[in-house]
Amino acid sequence: MKKVIGIRRETKDHTQRRSPLSPRQVNQLVRNYGIRVIVQPWENRVFADSSFAEAGGEVGEDLSSCNIIFGVKEIASDLLLKKKSYCFFSHTVKGQQYNMPMLRAMMKKGDTLFDYELVKGSDGKRLIFFGNYAGYAGMIDTLWALGRRLRWEGLRTPLEEVRYATSYGRLHEAEDALRGIGQCIARDGLPEVLVPLVTGFTGYGHVSTSAQRLYDLLPSQELLPDQLEHFFSSGDFSNNKVYKVVFKKPDMYRRKSGEGFDPDDFVSNPQLFESNFERYLQYCTIIMNGIYWEPRFPRIITKAFMKEMYRSNNRPRLRVIGDITCDIDGSNELTVKETNAENPVYVFDPLTEEIRDGWEGRGSIVLAVDKLPTELPLEASEEFGNGLLPFVSQLAEADYNVPLDILSLPKEFRAAMILYRGELTPEFSYLNNHL
Question: Is residue 91 a contact partner of residue 74, using CB atoms and an 8 Å limit?
């Protein structure tokens, strides 16, 4: 039914608390556009069911009358309705095998699928995203993990005062805490065995820049990748500071033939490139991984390299890898499973390739929480909904029964349509190879 939308409960993981729209945004849709909004009840959602009802929405189980249904994460096949339009993060466009059964089910049921990840402006940048809050939560959690690892090693530092992201009610509380910890580092210093404490950031999108913004609340000094070797050999560093390095593609990859890095060549011929990143790992205490990666690209951290590093030095500097990308067996080969807020980190032993939940034991800690923005759910949901809101009225009024070529949609969402009435759209026909 036109002008009726649904907000479904999240069923993939019980730790999920986000919503694609807030009560305030639902009120705008009801009041300004006459849209009927049906919200499935869900006690885990950061916004109470009653707050949606007070905003003019309807709380109810049945979404069968909705013209389009909005969610955040993937939907189990048996929960999908027939001949419905859905919008959520489907994690299918790379041909991810773990979500192909869901995509097949949507095709069989004649569903339409939009993916937020594909909604982009004319400049190619994403318009609807949680990336900022993935960066914020990932940075908080990585510093939390480092503090606990160092305490286990017998090193007392101000970082052990960092709490896990979910224990901060709002982002500003975490910011205030990090400022205070930064003041302690500037005043009292860090143990000499840790100095210099260097954090490497990969990528330069929303994830990486947000993580850096929080890290810079500590007394941070930036270095260039090519400065690292001389910086360490010079000894010209301080225990009253932390250091950061931002790695971009020319720093992370090199052509196997030894020629310079060309970004177009890299995208067209990734098989001709290899990791150049591992040469820097010996200098870093933390790696914050925020890059976009596909299986055709080289990995930046491999099990083989980590094994060699531990064979030559049984206690390397690298303590924590905050893998915000959370691509299983992806750019960081040590990311062998996803974690959640209840059990966020594990230690990967490079010599045995065994993993152990927690922060104790030989190896580097890996933080691989798949739903980091849900650890700061209120602000993350509000900001995400601000990006989605301008498109909702048009999506609610679209006629999803007409042929694709005359379907009226915002151009940004037409490009984000993976399925239409059970058929792959032309831009995504390549997914047949993965199905």
Answer: yes
Helix/strand/coil for 349: strand
Structure tokens at 139: 């940075």
Pairing of strands 198-202, 242-247: parallel
Amino acid identity for residue 275 in this structure: S
CB 293 within 8 A of CB 330: yes
Report the alpha-carbon angle 254-257-262, nearest 5. 45
Number of domains in the chain: 2
Mean pLDDT comparison of 82-86, 202-206, 260-264, 337-341, highest-scoring range: 82-86
Residue type, 194: L
Q: Single out the residue in 325, 353, 375 at which a domain terminates.
A: 375
Cα–Cα dist 73/90, whole Å: 7
Please report the DSSP string for 109-171 in residue order. Answer: TT-EEE-GGG-B-TTS-BSS--HHHHHHHHHHHHHHHHHHHHHHTT---GGGGPPPGGGSSSH
Q: What does the alpha-carbon distance between residue 192 and residue 202 come to, in Å, rounded to a whole number?
A: 26
Q: How far apart are CA 295 and CA 328, in angstroms?
A: 10
Please check whether residues 387 and 337 belong to one and the same domain. Answer: no
Is residue 234 domain-shared with residue 267, that is, in the same domain?
A: yes
**Which percentage of the chain shows pLDDT scores above 70?**
100
Q: Judge if 157 and 78 occupy the same domain.
A: no
Residues 252 and 135 in one domain: yes
The size of the chain, in residues, is: 435
Which residues partner with 301 through β-bridges? 332
The verdict on 156 and 51 lying in the same domain is no
More confident residue, 374 or 25: 25
Same domain, yes or no, for 170 and 306?
yes
CATH code of the domain containing 193: 3.40.50.720
Specify the residue for token string 């606990």: 148
Q: Are both 107 and 30 inside the same structural domain?
A: yes
Q: What is the mean pLDDT of the chain?
A: 95
- What is the extent of the structural domain holding 212? 131-375
The pair phi, psi for residue 240, each rounded to 5°, is -100, 15
- Is the domain of 112 the same as that of 153? no
pTM of the model: 0.84
pLDDT tens readout for residues 98-117: 899 999 999 999 999 999 99
DSSP annotation of 274 reads E
Q: Residues near 155 by Cβ (< 8 Å), separated by ≥ 6?
A: 191, 193, 194
Residue labelled with tokens 């210099």: 196
114, 93 in Cβ contact below 8 A?
no
User: How many CA atoms lie less than 13 Å away from 94 in the CB half-sphere?
Assistant: 15
